[in-house]
Amino acid sequence: MALFKSFFLHVIGFLVLAGCGQSETVVEVALHPTKAHILYMATNDYIYKTRDGGTHWEKMSAGMTHSRVIALAIDPLFPANILAGTKGDAVYKSYDGGQRWVSRGTGLYEVTISSVVHQLVFAPGSSSHVFAATSLGVFESNDGGETWTKRMEGMKEVLMVISLDIDHQQPQTLYAGTSGGVYKSVDGAKTWEKVNTGLVAPDVLKSSRALGVTRIKVDPFNPDNVYTATLEGLYQTGNGGKSWNRIGESLPDHMLSELLLDSHQIGVMYVSHREGISRSEDGGVTWETRNAGLTNINIRALAISAIDSHVLYAGTNGKGLFRTNDSGMSWKPIPLVTQESLS
Protein backbone atom coordinates (compact mmCIF):
# COMPACT_ATOMS: atom_id res chain seq x y z
CA MET A 1 0.00 0.00 0.00
CA ALA A 2 2.95 2.31 0.64
CA LEU A 3 3.88 1.95 -3.03
CA PHE A 4 0.29 2.70 -4.03
CA LYS A 5 0.25 5.93 -2.02
CA SER A 6 3.72 7.01 -3.10
CA PHE A 7 2.75 6.59 -6.74
CA PHE A 8 -0.07 9.11 -6.46
CA LEU A 9 2.11 11.49 -4.48
CA HIS A 10 4.87 11.12 -7.06
CA VAL A 11 2.71 12.25 -9.96
CA ILE A 12 2.98 15.89 -8.96
CA GLY A 13 5.41 17.67 -11.28
CA PHE A 14 5.96 20.86 -13.20
CA LEU A 15 4.51 22.57 -16.30
CA VAL A 16 6.46 25.38 -17.99
CA LEU A 17 4.43 28.57 -18.34
CA ALA A 18 5.47 30.34 -21.53
CA GLY A 19 7.44 33.47 -20.82
CA CYS A 20 7.22 33.10 -17.04
CA GLY A 21 9.88 30.57 -16.12
CA GLN A 22 7.31 29.16 -13.67
CA SER A 23 6.45 25.49 -13.33
CA GLU A 24 3.22 23.56 -12.69
CA THR A 25 1.90 20.04 -13.05
CA VAL A 26 -0.61 19.10 -15.73
CA VAL A 27 -2.84 17.05 -13.46
CA GLU A 28 -5.83 16.49 -15.76
CA VAL A 29 -7.01 17.20 -19.30
CA ALA A 30 -10.66 17.34 -20.36
CA LEU A 31 -11.80 17.70 -23.98
CA HIS A 32 -15.04 19.29 -25.20
CA PRO A 33 -17.26 16.49 -26.61
CA THR A 34 -18.14 18.27 -29.88
CA LYS A 35 -15.75 21.22 -30.35
CA ALA A 36 -12.18 20.12 -30.94
CA HIS A 37 -10.69 23.56 -30.31
CA ILE A 38 -12.00 23.75 -26.70
CA LEU A 39 -10.23 21.95 -23.90
CA TYR A 40 -9.44 22.33 -20.21
CA MET A 41 -6.47 21.37 -18.13
CA ALA A 42 -5.86 21.42 -14.42
CA THR A 43 -2.49 22.25 -12.94
CA ASN A 44 -1.33 22.28 -9.33
CA ASP A 45 -2.82 25.75 -8.85
CA TYR A 46 -5.41 26.52 -11.51
CA ILE A 47 -7.78 25.30 -14.19
CA TYR A 48 -7.04 26.67 -17.66
CA LYS A 49 -9.21 26.76 -20.77
CA THR A 50 -8.39 27.26 -24.42
CA ARG A 51 -10.87 28.13 -27.15
CA ASP A 52 -8.37 27.96 -30.00
CA GLY A 53 -6.78 24.54 -29.66
CA GLY A 54 -4.08 25.63 -27.26
CA THR A 55 -2.75 28.81 -28.85
CA HIS A 56 -4.04 30.88 -25.94
CA TRP A 57 -5.18 29.91 -22.45
CA GLU A 58 -7.38 31.56 -19.82
CA LYS A 59 -7.19 31.00 -16.09
CA MET A 60 -10.52 29.55 -14.94
CA SER A 61 -10.61 29.19 -11.16
CA ALA A 62 -12.86 31.99 -9.88
CA GLY A 63 -14.77 30.84 -6.80
CA MET A 64 -12.45 27.96 -5.98
CA THR A 65 -10.24 27.56 -2.96
CA HIS A 66 -6.61 26.62 -3.38
CA SER A 67 -7.44 22.93 -3.14
CA ARG A 68 -5.71 20.93 -5.84
CA VAL A 69 -7.98 19.80 -8.70
CA ILE A 70 -7.50 16.10 -9.43
CA ALA A 71 -10.42 15.32 -11.78
CA LEU A 72 -12.47 17.11 -14.45
CA ALA A 73 -15.68 15.96 -16.15
CA ILE A 74 -17.64 17.78 -18.85
CA ASP A 75 -21.40 17.33 -19.14
CA PRO A 76 -21.87 15.33 -22.39
CA LEU A 77 -25.17 17.04 -23.25
CA PHE A 78 -24.56 20.58 -21.94
CA PRO A 79 -20.78 21.09 -22.07
CA ALA A 80 -20.94 24.46 -20.30
CA ASN A 81 -21.53 22.41 -17.14
CA ILE A 82 -18.25 21.12 -15.72
CA LEU A 83 -17.42 19.25 -12.53
CA ALA A 84 -14.06 19.42 -10.79
CA GLY A 85 -12.95 16.95 -8.13
CA THR A 86 -10.35 18.14 -5.65
CA LYS A 87 -7.94 16.98 -3.01
CA GLY A 88 -9.48 18.01 0.27
CA ASP A 89 -12.42 20.17 -0.84
CA ALA A 90 -14.92 17.77 -2.46
CA VAL A 91 -16.49 18.83 -5.78
CA TYR A 92 -16.92 22.16 -7.54
CA LYS A 93 -19.27 22.87 -10.43
CA SER A 94 -19.25 25.49 -13.17
CA TYR A 95 -22.40 26.35 -15.12
CA ASP A 96 -20.69 28.71 -17.56
CA GLY A 97 -17.77 26.89 -19.12
CA GLY A 98 -15.39 27.42 -16.24
CA GLN A 99 -15.84 31.16 -15.73
CA ARG A 100 -17.07 30.68 -12.15
CA TRP A 101 -17.15 27.74 -9.77
CA VAL A 102 -19.35 26.90 -6.80
CA SER A 103 -18.85 24.24 -4.14
CA ARG A 104 -21.13 21.23 -4.47
CA GLY A 105 -20.22 18.92 -1.61
CA THR A 106 -23.62 18.15 -0.06
CA GLY A 107 -23.55 14.46 0.82
CA LEU A 108 -19.78 14.28 0.58
CA TYR A 109 -19.77 15.01 4.30
CA GLU A 110 -17.00 12.50 4.97
CA VAL A 111 -14.62 14.00 2.44
CA THR A 112 -12.12 15.82 4.60
CA ILE A 113 -8.82 17.52 3.96
CA SER A 114 -7.10 14.15 3.80
CA SER A 115 -9.28 12.68 1.03
CA VAL A 116 -9.29 12.94 -2.75
CA VAL A 117 -11.90 12.88 -5.52
CA HIS A 118 -9.95 10.80 -8.04
CA GLN A 119 -12.44 10.62 -10.91
CA LEU A 120 -15.84 11.93 -11.99
CA VAL A 121 -17.91 10.04 -14.58
CA PHE A 122 -21.19 11.04 -16.21
CA ALA A 123 -23.57 8.18 -16.97
CA PRO A 124 -23.97 7.67 -20.74
CA GLY A 125 -26.31 10.22 -22.31
CA SER A 126 -27.12 11.94 -19.02
CA SER A 127 -26.47 15.38 -17.60
CA SER A 128 -27.84 14.57 -14.17
CA HIS A 129 -26.43 11.15 -13.32
CA VAL A 130 -22.82 11.28 -12.12
CA PHE A 131 -20.50 9.04 -10.12
CA ALA A 132 -17.42 9.99 -8.14
CA ALA A 133 -14.50 7.74 -7.23
CA THR A 134 -12.98 9.00 -4.00
CA SER A 135 -10.52 7.89 -1.35
CA LEU A 136 -13.57 7.28 0.86
CA GLY A 137 -15.56 5.28 -1.67
CA VAL A 138 -18.06 5.65 -4.51
CA PHE A 139 -20.58 8.48 -4.46
CA GLU A 140 -23.58 8.99 -6.76
CA SER A 141 -25.42 12.15 -7.80
CA ASN A 142 -28.75 12.24 -9.60
CA ASP A 143 -28.89 16.02 -9.94
CA GLY A 144 -25.77 16.85 -11.91
CA GLY A 145 -23.45 16.93 -8.93
CA GLU A 146 -25.54 19.16 -6.67
CA THR A 147 -25.93 16.49 -3.98
CA TRP A 148 -24.22 13.13 -3.42
CA THR A 149 -25.00 9.76 -1.82
CA LYS A 150 -22.43 7.18 -0.78
CA ARG A 151 -22.71 3.85 -2.65
CA MET A 152 -20.48 1.26 -0.98
CA GLU A 153 -22.81 -1.67 -0.20
CA GLY A 154 -20.71 -4.79 -0.70
CA MET A 155 -17.33 -3.05 -0.63
CA LYS A 156 -16.54 -4.29 2.86
CA GLU A 157 -12.78 -4.59 2.54
CA VAL A 158 -11.82 -1.36 0.80
CA LEU A 159 -12.45 2.37 1.01
CA MET A 160 -10.11 3.89 -1.57
CA VAL A 161 -11.73 3.91 -5.03
CA ILE A 162 -9.48 5.25 -7.76
CA SER A 163 -11.33 4.63 -11.02
CA LEU A 164 -14.85 3.98 -12.34
CA ASP A 165 -16.27 3.07 -15.71
CA ILE A 166 -19.78 2.40 -16.97
CA ASP A 167 -21.04 -0.05 -19.58
CA HIS A 168 -22.49 2.23 -22.27
CA GLN A 169 -24.80 -0.51 -23.52
CA GLN A 170 -26.05 -1.40 -20.02
CA PRO A 171 -25.58 1.73 -17.86
CA GLN A 172 -26.68 -0.15 -14.73
CA THR A 173 -23.39 -2.05 -14.95
CA LEU A 174 -20.37 -0.33 -13.40
CA TYR A 175 -16.83 -1.35 -12.54
CA ALA A 176 -14.77 0.17 -9.75
CA GLY A 177 -10.99 -0.01 -9.55
CA THR A 178 -9.78 0.11 -5.97
CA SER A 179 -6.73 -0.42 -3.81
CA GLY A 180 -7.96 -4.01 -3.36
CA GLY A 181 -8.77 -4.89 -6.96
CA VAL A 182 -12.00 -4.64 -8.95
CA TYR A 183 -15.66 -4.53 -7.92
CA LYS A 184 -18.70 -4.79 -10.20
CA SER A 185 -22.27 -3.53 -9.84
CA VAL A 186 -25.19 -4.58 -12.02
CA ASP A 187 -27.79 -2.42 -10.28
CA GLY A 188 -26.47 1.08 -10.79
CA ALA A 189 -24.03 1.05 -7.84
CA LYS A 190 -26.64 0.08 -5.26
CA THR A 191 -24.62 -3.06 -4.48
CA TRP A 192 -21.11 -4.23 -5.39
CA GLU A 193 -19.43 -7.60 -5.76
CA LYS A 194 -15.70 -8.26 -5.76
CA VAL A 195 -14.50 -9.68 -9.10
CA ASN A 196 -10.81 -10.34 -8.47
CA THR A 197 -10.26 -13.88 -9.80
CA GLY A 198 -7.01 -13.80 -11.75
CA LEU A 199 -6.21 -10.28 -10.61
CA VAL A 200 -5.07 -11.24 -7.14
CA ALA A 201 -3.36 -14.46 -6.12
CA PRO A 202 -5.73 -16.81 -4.23
CA ASP A 203 -3.67 -16.68 -1.02
CA VAL A 204 -4.13 -12.90 -0.76
CA LEU A 205 -7.57 -12.63 -2.37
CA LYS A 206 -9.14 -11.39 0.85
CA SER A 207 -6.60 -8.63 1.35
CA SER A 208 -7.74 -5.12 0.49
CA ARG A 209 -4.07 -4.22 0.00
CA ALA A 210 -3.42 -6.84 -2.65
CA LEU A 211 -3.51 -4.71 -5.80
CA GLY A 212 -3.58 -1.02 -6.73
CA VAL A 213 -5.84 -0.32 -9.71
CA THR A 214 -5.13 2.99 -11.40
CA ARG A 215 -7.64 2.89 -14.26
CA ILE A 216 -10.45 0.64 -15.49
CA LYS A 217 -12.13 0.77 -18.91
CA VAL A 218 -15.05 -1.08 -20.51
CA ASP A 219 -14.52 -1.96 -24.18
CA PRO A 220 -16.92 0.24 -26.21
CA PHE A 221 -17.32 -2.53 -28.81
CA ASN A 222 -17.75 -5.48 -26.43
CA PRO A 223 -18.93 -4.69 -22.87
CA ASP A 224 -17.90 -8.12 -21.57
CA ASN A 225 -14.35 -7.09 -22.40
CA VAL A 226 -12.88 -4.91 -19.64
CA TYR A 227 -9.32 -3.71 -19.10
CA THR A 228 -7.66 -2.84 -15.81
CA ALA A 229 -4.42 -0.90 -15.46
CA THR A 230 -2.65 -1.48 -12.15
CA LEU A 231 0.62 -0.70 -10.44
CA GLU A 232 1.61 -4.27 -11.27
CA GLY A 233 0.59 -4.54 -14.92
CA LEU A 234 -2.34 -4.75 -17.33
CA TYR A 235 -5.24 -7.19 -17.02
CA GLN A 236 -8.18 -8.12 -19.24
CA THR A 237 -11.45 -9.99 -18.82
CA GLY A 238 -13.61 -11.28 -21.64
CA ASN A 239 -16.47 -12.44 -19.43
CA GLY A 240 -17.52 -9.34 -17.53
CA GLY A 241 -15.08 -9.75 -14.67
CA LYS A 242 -15.64 -13.41 -13.81
CA SER A 243 -11.95 -14.05 -14.48
CA TRP A 244 -8.96 -11.92 -15.48
CA ASN A 245 -5.82 -12.58 -17.50
CA ARG A 246 -2.51 -10.74 -17.40
CA ILE A 247 -1.70 -9.14 -20.76
CA GLY A 248 0.83 -6.62 -22.01
CA GLU A 249 3.85 -8.57 -20.83
CA SER A 250 5.96 -6.85 -23.50
CA LEU A 251 5.32 -3.36 -22.10
CA PRO A 252 8.57 -1.64 -21.09
CA ASP A 253 7.18 -0.89 -17.63
CA HIS A 254 4.30 -2.34 -15.65
CA MET A 255 3.54 0.45 -13.20
CA LEU A 256 0.68 1.89 -15.24
CA SER A 257 -0.81 5.31 -14.58
CA GLU A 258 -3.31 5.81 -17.44
CA LEU A 259 -5.38 3.67 -19.82
CA LEU A 260 -7.36 4.80 -22.88
CA LEU A 261 -9.52 2.82 -25.31
CA ASP A 262 -10.18 4.15 -28.80
CA SER A 263 -13.96 4.32 -29.31
CA HIS A 264 -13.54 4.49 -33.10
CA GLN A 265 -11.16 1.56 -33.72
CA ILE A 266 -11.56 -1.94 -32.29
CA GLY A 267 -8.56 -3.11 -30.30
CA VAL A 268 -6.70 0.21 -30.21
CA MET A 269 -5.60 1.30 -26.76
CA TYR A 270 -2.97 3.36 -24.96
CA VAL A 271 -1.26 3.15 -21.58
CA SER A 272 1.18 5.43 -19.81
CA HIS A 273 3.93 4.31 -17.46
CA ARG A 274 7.37 5.35 -16.24
CA GLU A 275 8.81 4.84 -19.73
CA GLY A 276 6.25 7.07 -21.48
CA ILE A 277 3.31 6.05 -23.67
CA SER A 278 2.60 2.75 -25.42
CA ARG A 279 -0.02 1.91 -28.07
CA SER A 280 -1.61 -1.42 -29.00
CA GLU A 281 -3.68 -2.23 -32.07
CA ASP A 282 -4.66 -5.77 -31.06
CA GLY A 283 -6.36 -5.37 -27.71
CA GLY A 284 -3.20 -5.29 -25.66
CA VAL A 285 -1.38 -8.32 -27.07
CA THR A 286 1.47 -6.36 -28.67
CA TRP A 287 2.67 -2.82 -27.98
CA GLU A 288 4.69 -0.04 -29.57
CA THR A 289 6.26 2.88 -27.70
CA ARG A 290 5.00 6.28 -28.91
CA ASN A 291 7.31 8.87 -27.32
CA ALA A 292 8.69 10.77 -30.32
CA GLY A 293 8.66 14.49 -29.55
CA LEU A 294 8.01 14.13 -25.83
CA THR A 295 10.70 15.93 -23.86
CA ASN A 296 9.46 14.34 -20.66
CA ILE A 297 8.09 10.80 -20.49
CA ASN A 298 6.75 11.15 -16.95
CA ILE A 299 3.07 11.25 -17.95
CA ARG A 300 0.44 12.51 -15.52
CA ALA A 301 -2.64 12.73 -17.78
CA LEU A 302 -3.83 11.28 -21.09
CA ALA A 303 -6.92 12.24 -23.08
CA ILE A 304 -8.21 11.09 -26.47
CA SER A 305 -10.51 13.12 -28.69
CA ALA A 306 -14.05 11.83 -29.12
CA ILE A 307 -14.15 13.63 -32.47
CA ASP A 308 -10.90 12.40 -34.01
CA SER A 309 -9.21 9.53 -32.19
CA HIS A 310 -5.89 10.24 -33.90
CA VAL A 311 -5.70 13.30 -31.64
CA LEU A 312 -4.47 12.80 -28.08
CA TYR A 313 -3.17 15.05 -25.33
CA ALA A 314 -0.52 14.14 -22.75
CA GLY A 315 0.20 16.13 -19.61
CA THR A 316 3.69 15.63 -18.22
CA ASN A 317 5.34 16.16 -14.88
CA GLY A 318 8.07 18.41 -16.19
CA LYS A 319 7.45 19.86 -19.62
CA GLY A 320 3.77 20.71 -19.78
CA LEU A 321 1.14 19.63 -22.29
CA PHE A 322 1.72 17.81 -25.59
CA ARG A 323 -0.56 16.95 -28.50
CA THR A 324 -0.39 14.34 -31.22
CA ASN A 325 -2.44 14.37 -34.42
CA ASP A 326 -1.16 10.99 -35.63
CA SER A 327 -1.96 8.54 -32.82
CA GLY A 328 1.24 9.21 -30.95
CA MET A 329 3.71 8.82 -33.81
CA SER A 330 4.85 12.38 -33.10
CA TRP A 331 4.11 14.77 -30.24
CA LYS A 332 4.38 18.55 -30.15
CA PRO A 333 4.38 20.80 -27.07
CA ILE A 334 1.53 23.22 -26.37
CA PRO A 335 2.94 26.15 -24.35
CA LEU A 336 0.68 27.58 -21.67
CA VAL A 337 0.47 31.09 -23.10
CA THR A 338 -1.84 33.28 -21.00
CA GLN A 339 -2.60 36.98 -20.99
CA GLU A 340 -0.42 37.26 -17.89
CA SER A 341 2.55 35.66 -19.60
CA LEU A 342 2.18 37.99 -22.60
CA SER A 343 1.98 41.18 -20.53
Structure description:
The structure is a single chain. The chain is mainly β and 343 residues long. It is 4% helix and 36% strand.
Distance between the termini: 46 Å
Average pLDDT over all residues: 88
Order of strands across the main sheet = 1-2-3-4
SS summary, helix count: 2
Main β-sheet: number of strands, strand sense, barrel status? 4 strands, antiparallel
List keywords for this structure.
disordered N terminus; 4-stranded antiparallel sheet; 2 helices; mainly beta; 343 residues
Blueprint of the fold:
Blueprint: H1 2-10, E1 28-31, E2 39-42, E3 47-50, E4 58-59, E5 68-74, E6 82-87, E7 91-94, E8 102-103, E9 117-122, E10 130-134, E11 137-141, E12 149-150, E13 161-166, E14 174-178, E15 181-185, E16 193-194, E17 213-218, E18 226-230, E19 233-237, E20 245-247, E21 258-261, E22 269-273, E23 276-280, E24 288-289, E25 299-304, E26 312-316, E27 321-324, E28 332-334, H2 339-342
Antiparallel strand pairs: 1-2, 2-3, 3-4, 5-6, 6-7, 7-8, 9-10, 10-11, 11-12, 13-14, 14-15, 15-16, 17-18, 18-19, 19-20, 21-22, 22-23, 23-24, 25-26, 26-27, 27-28
Summed up, what is this model?
This protein has 343 residues and is mainly beta.
